[in-house]
Write a structure and sequence with these properties.
51% of the residues lie in helices and 15% in strands. By secondary structure, it is an alpha/beta fold. It has a nine-stranded mixed sheet, with helices on both faces. The relative contact order is 0.16.
Length: 271
């Protein structure tokens, strides 16, 4: 069995040494905070959305993060163009299907990205993930109405169907490619009260995937890092406002050694 604690530490160390450029086509609501999260962990963020520059920008990047939170037709076209270029270049693509299942535009855009590009990891809540496979899941805005346990029942089969790795986040996180399934513990109760924590988790998966070619271990170690930072931030926060700031500090201050000690990843062996 792989030593996930050591792998998490190695990934964080490599990330801070190489400072990979992470190309984000993300939503207006979280753009600033996502950039700060990436800077705090040691990566270099760029938010480039213009259709006439995304192909050039993605060529410089270590990973491409596509987040459908505030879609327009122009952004959909830019995402597909960037995704096809990243696919041709063999760059990791991480998709955040924000609100998929809530509206036709969101669901169809997420499915189009999956169909026309080679997505390495899809990071979302249980409802969003289940909507991608026609499981009859529904979402309430961008909040989960399906639990991580519900998602785990079909996650492996859905990952195989979509040909990608699924990172399903909630009180407990699950990562699977249909062959391997990892469970990640961590986080804090205040995380759902801060806009952009889920989107930031997606961006961190992109940063870790830029230094780790294995999408399963990249996603799991990124989520373990984020969860541990959330726990540390929660010990100092009085509420959502101070939690948001302390989370950035925790991401910055967590060392690879801290992560190795605090990371809680386990492998599920059932079929």
């Amino acid at each position: 069995m792989p030593d996930f604690a050591r792998k998490a530490a190695d990934n964080l160390r490599a990330l801070r040494q190489t400072k990979p450029l992470i190309h984000n086509i993300t939503n207006f609501v979280v753009m600033n905070y996502t950039a700060n999260v990436l800077l705090a962990c040691g990566a270099s963020p760029v938010m480039a959305h213009a259709e006439n520059e995304v192909e050039e920008m993605v060529a410089y990047a270590g990973a491409l993060v596509l987040n459908i939170g505030t879609l327009t037709d122009v952004w959909v076209a830019a995402m597909l163009k960037a995704g096809r270029r990243a696919t041709a270049l063999g760059k990791p693509i991480i998709l955040d299907p924000v609100g998929s299942g809530a509206t036709g535009l969101r669901t169809e855009t997420a499915k189009s990205i999956l169909a026309w590009t080679k997505v390495s990891v899809v990071r979302g809540n249980a409802s969003e993930i289940l909507s991608l496979g026609g499981q009859g899941s529904t979402t309430k805005g961008v909040d989960a109405t399906d639990s991580i346990e519900d998602a785990a029942k079909t996650a492996g089969a859905l990952a195989r169907e979509l040909g990608t790795t699924l990172a399903i986040t909630g009180p407990t996180d699950l990562v699977t490619d249909g062959r391997r399934t990892l469970i990640i513990e961590g986080g804090h109760r205040l995380m759902p009260y801060v806009t952009g924590t889920g989107c930031s988790a997606t961006a961190l998966v992109g940063a870790f995937h830029a230094v780790d070619p294995d999408p399963v271990s990249a996603a799991a170690t990124a989520l373990a890092f984020f969860g541990l930072a959330g726990e540390r931030a929660g010990t100092k926060a009085d509420g959502p406002g101070t939690f948001q700031i302390h989370l950035l500090d925790a991401l910055y201050n967590l060392s690879p050694e801290d992560l190795a000690k605090g990371c809680r990843i386990r492998e599920e062996h059932h079929a």
